[in-house]
Design goal:
It catalyses: deamido-NAD(+) + L-glutamine + ATP + H2O = L-glutamate + AMP + diphosphate + NAD(+) + H(+). This protein is α/β, with parallel strands linked by helices and about 550 residues long. It has 16 helices and 19 strands. Helix content is about 35%, strand content about 20%. Helix 1 runs parallel beside helix 2, helix 5 crosses helix 11 and helix 8 packs across helix 9.
């Protein structure tokens, strides 16, 4: 048995479905861990070979053939260091979410994930069958217990590893971010440490994948429940953990190492949005991003996120004024675009709107003006932005926030048109907080954009408060109804006006059809409008809310 075991944590950003590319990146990181850090063992995230989550790609036989070839090649190319990585593996029982030990040209051990999450954004029982029993690997004579992601959230897998002789727990993850997730992880890891007496090496994925974003923040927790070492959030990193290995079978204690600085909640959330936009645009092969810059706070914040994610040279902002657009909106949009150094255009939409109104005049004859005319304005803007996106190869970012999406305060094929929605899971009150935070990094959003009353500017003197409750009232109701699944009665008991709650709840349910047609966006709460919220479009539930 060695006196000191050196284990490298490879916190990497991988691409779902790019089996060969992922294998190549894993190999390069393995060589760094071996040659530069002198590691005995290097860990990679859950399902690293396929990327996470591969979803229905797992139903394709061709994917598994590619995985088998890539693993075979990787095992033969990597020598002089042990490697643990995640991969889908099949046997007579079915498909497993596995952690593999590569050693000396072969797969030397395999652990199949025992606890398969099937809630929120997770759908693993659709694809995998659970494993049974512990897997304890010997690395230079030191027994280490393998676990995969959700296994650490329940007591049994770690307990089984301890009973099987493990002196340290290795946990490879693809654990997506939401606000407050780091503290949840710490509490969970401390519970496992208390129960087993074993230290845990927790390795997490980093980067964006469709609506999910992975924060990394891998860490080492000692047997006393204290964090001994941690990796940065939102960045790839390779870090060496040194573990003293005295004789006997007592639990091992990792040495203290470097700890990455922790960000406050607003900074962490902002970086989550930046990471999600960066990876969605770049991994899908777009040349940059384009968005409509209205002079309002939502588009102002979206522009900052796009610039910080992609660089100013890759971003284009378009102001599309109409007769109801305030002069301050044009001035503020122009000022922000200039301060951030992005490509900026002003394209008035009056001629286009009037052309539509002229063409529709016979159809509309005798009918009063209503939101139809407002929606035509929004749809003219959507056509312009999609045309620019098509012509330039830039991804169109929509700028709507979660509060608006919840109650349907958005126009289908208008301001909802686009490929990605950075603020889709960010409430309006959080938009204000993030705008203030971004300005602490350098003045980017004009002060009056933050301070002026929100308005869609689709009618004279229009303000959001004409159609919606104040956001200080609306957002807490939405959080309870959408994210916490509270009933109208429960929300009213919490102190909210019953008529207002009924109205908001009705709007949420009535506008499911809009959200179903909306672009994906970064999920940053426990319950976003995406794969973890699956409500029927056609439903009688809203007729009798409870």
């Amino acid at each position: 048995m060695t006196d000191t075991l050196k284990i490298a944590l490879a916190q990497v950003d991988l691409l779902v479905g790019d089996v060969e590319g992922n294998a190549e990146r894993i190999r390069d990181w393995v060589f760094k861990a071996r040659d530069e850090l002198g590691a005995d063992l290097v860990l990679f995230p859950e399902l690293a070979i396929t990327g996470y989550p591969p979803e229905d790609l797992l139903l394709r036989a061709s994917l598994h053939a590619r995985v088998e070839r890539a693993l075979h090649r990787l095992a033969h190319e990597v020598r002089g260091i042990d490697v643990v990585l995640g991969a889908p593996m099949q046997d007579e029982r079915g498909l497993h979410n596995s952690a593999l030990l590569l050693r000396d040209g072969a797969i030397a051990a395999r652990y199949d994930k025992q606890i398969l999450p099937n809630y929120s954004v997770f759908d693993e029982k659709r694809y995998f069958v659970p494993g049974h029993g512990a897997c304890v690997i010997q690395v230079r004579g030191v027994p280490l217990g393998l676990t995969v992601c959700e296994d650490i959230w329940q007591p049994e897998p770690a307990a089984r590893a301890r009973e099987a002789g493990a002196r340290l727990i290795l946990n490879i993850n693809a654990s997506p971010y939401h606000r407050g997730k780091r503290e949840e992880r710490l509490q969970t890891l401390r519970a496992r440490v208390r129960e087993t007496g074993l230290s845990v090496l927790y390795l997490n994925l980093v980067g964006g994948q469709d609506e999910l974003v992975f924060d990394g923040q891998s860490l080492v927790m000692g047997g006393d429940g204290e964090v001994r070492q941690s990796l940065p959030a939102w960045h790839e990193a390779l870090s060496l953990v040194s573990v003293d290995c005295p004789a006997g079978d007592a639990p091992l204690q990792p040495r203290a190492g470097e700890q990455a600085p922790l960000a406050d909640e607003a900074a962490e959330l902002y970086q989550a949005l930046v990471t999600g936009v960066r990876d969605y645009v770049s991994k899908n092969g777009f040349r940059g991003a384009v968005l409509g810059l209205s002079g309002g706070i939502d588009s102002a914040l979206t522009l900052c996120i796009a610039v910080d994610a992609l660089g100013a040279d890759a971003v284009e902002a378009v102001m599309m004024p109409y007769r109801y657009t305030a002069s301050m909106s044009v001035e503020d949009a122009r000022s922000q675009a200039q301060s951030l150094g992005v490509r900026y255009r002003e394209i008035p939409i009056e001629p286009m709107v009037e052309a539509f109104m002229t063409g529709l005049a016979p159809e509309f004859e005798g009918l009063p003006r209503d939101t139809t005319e407002e929606n035509i304005q929004a749809r003219c803007r959507g056509v312009i932005l999609m045309a620019i996106s098509n012509k330039t190869g830039r991804m169109l970012l929509t700028t709507g926030n979660k509060s608006e999406m919840a109650v349907g305060y958005a126009t289908l094929y208008g301001d909802m048109a686009g490929g990605f929605a950075p603020l889709k899971d960010v409430s309006k009150l959080w938009v204000f907080r993030l705008a203030e935070y971004r300005n602490t990094l350098g003045a980017a959003i004009p002060r009056r954009v933050i301070e002026r009353p929100p308005s869609a500017e689709l009618a004279p003197g229009q303000q959001d408060s004409d159609s919606l409750p104040p956001y200080e009232v609306l957002d807490p109701i939405l959080e309870r109804f959408v994210e916490q699944d509270q009933s109208v009665e429960q929300i009213v008991r919490a102190g909210f006006d019953e008529a207002t709650v009924q109205r908001v709840a009705t709007l949420v349910l009535r506008n499911e059809y809009k959200r179903r047609q909306a672009p994906p966006g970064v999920r940053v709460t426990r319950r976003g409008f995406g794969k973890d919220r699956r409500y029927p479009i056609t439903s009688g539930y809203g007729r009798l809310l409870s």
